[in-house]
Design brief:
Elements (H helix, E strand, L loop, with lengths): L3 E6 L15 H17 L4 E4 L12 H10 L5 E4 L2 E2 L5 H14 L5 E5 L6 H4 L7 H17 L3 E3 L7 E4 L12 E5 L4 H10 L2 E5 L5 H17 L10 E9 L3 H13 L10 H7 L3 E3 L1 H15 L4 E5 L7 H26 L10 H12 L3
Parallel strand pairs: 1-2, 1-12, 2-3, 4-5, 5-8, 8-9, 9-10, 10-11, 10-12
Antiparallel strand pairs: 6-7
InterPro entries: Bact_Lucif_Oxidored, LLM_FMN-dep_put, Luciferase-like_dom, Luciferase-like_sf
Keywords: Monooxygenase, Oxidoreductase
Protein name: LLM class flavin-dependent oxidoreductase
Length: 365
């Protein structure tokens, strides 16, 4: 497949600042589905949904949404932009995503993270001060649940398990590929490296120096733990784009949405934020040039996801954006990234590649 390109959504319900209209929750949920279907239609590879449990966000049940999308697509890889490893029960994660694996014929992976909403911890009976230890312990259990038929477990944060078998078992005996997502915690980069999993840095907020330091840490530790050379580590990046045929139209149209965005509005100017972060507002060629430059920050990486529907942008506009990406941007990026990637740098794992690797391991030498 080569490098994977796709879209992620945080599922915010935000008023359109140009007319004051706020979509209903039903409209927003259906819009996310329409965006996923469009992502496949225009030839991109991945759709990822966030997980939130508070207004103004709607995607509280990623597997429900992704299962519905799986039934309406044939090729699209289904992922999460965050699965809350800290506040979800690892047993439930193991079972839910194995079920989604079977329903989607293996077209699923997930990004584990702690999210960026502090109050979610007490809502699920957890303490935010335990965020990192919860992430470490819960994932250690999740891995075992997917890889062992009967699990005995005793930890700090949940009741013990004795001879427990999660069902269904992973499809073909191959667990979903896991990306550990973090924008600020070196401990999570370390965790990803320790297991030889992927590391996803959603760099919509951060400057290039911070992104480089986090990815470099993961790559160094990936090599330290013997999973391959540093440049063979599996890296994904997030970013936001708004594209029109010419940059002046893009800036003019996007500015009111940026200025009022719940995540980064009422702060730095659009120009300053674009200069410092991965946000790209401009022509197709500007999006191509800036995205290609991410390789200078993160090295040869495997997955690029774009945030397209944040800040109250109407669905019609988002679908127009996806048409431009699919027709004028992503084909060029595929070709350019493929031409620049060394042969020894692997593609992002898929169910089929992981299944093939497992079969090779089971053949006696």
């Amino acid at each position: 497949m080569g490098m994977q390109f796709g879209v992620f959504s945080v599922g915010d319900v935000t008023p359109d600042p140009t007319n004051g209209r706020t979509p209903t929750e039903a409209e927003r949920i259906k819009a996310m589905v329409a965006i996923a279907l469009k992502t496949e239609e225009v030839g991109m590879d991945v759709f990822a949904t966030g997980e939130h449990h508070n207004p103004p966000f709607v995607p509280s049940s990623p597997t429900t949404m992704l299962g519905y999308i799986a039934a309406r697509t044939t090729r699209l890889l289904l992922s999460t932009a965050t699965t809350l490893i800290t506040t979800n029960d690892p047993v439930k994660i193991a079972e839910d995503y194995a079920m989604l694996q079977h329903l989607s014929d293996g077209r699923v992976d997930l990004m584990l993270g702690r999210g960026n909403t502090g109050p979610v911890y007490p809502w699920f009976g957890k303490d935010i001060r335990d965020g990192i230890p919860l992430a470490v312990e819960n994932y250690a259990l999740l891995r075992r649940l997917w890889r062992e038929e009967a699990v005995d477990w005793e930890g700090r944060f949940r009741t013990p398990l004795q001879g427990f078998t999660s069902t269904p078992r992973p499809l073909d005996g191959v667990p979903p590929f896991v990306w550990h997502a973090s924008i600020r915690s070196p401990e999570i980069a370390e965790q990803a490296a320790y297991y030889g999993d992927g590391f996803f840095h959603n760099n919509i907020f951060w400057d290039a120096g911070h992104v480089r330091r986090m990815v470099d840490l993961y790559r160094r530790r990936f090599e330290h733990y013997g999973h391959g050379s540093a440049d063979q580590a599996i890296v994904g990046l997030g970013g936001q784009v708004f594209v029109r045929k010419n940059s002046q139209d893009a800036v003019r149209e996007f500015r009111p949405y940026f200025d009022n965005a719940p995540v980064y509005g009422h702060g730095p100017s659009l120009e300053d934020f674009s200069e410092l972060t991965a946000l790209t507002v401009g022509s197709p060629q500007q999006v191509i040039d800036k995205t290609l430059a991410f390789r200078e920050i993160a090295g040869d990486y495997q997955r690029q996801l774009f945030l397209m529907d944040h800040a109250g942008l109407p669905l019609k506009t988002v679908l127009e954006q996806l048409d431009i990406l699919g027709e004028e941007v992503v084909p060029v990026l595929r070709e350019e990234f493929a031409a620049r990637a060394p042969q020894h740098v692997p593609d992002a794992p898929t169910h089929e590649s992981l299944k093939a690797a497992r079969a090779t391991e089971e053949v006696p030498a």
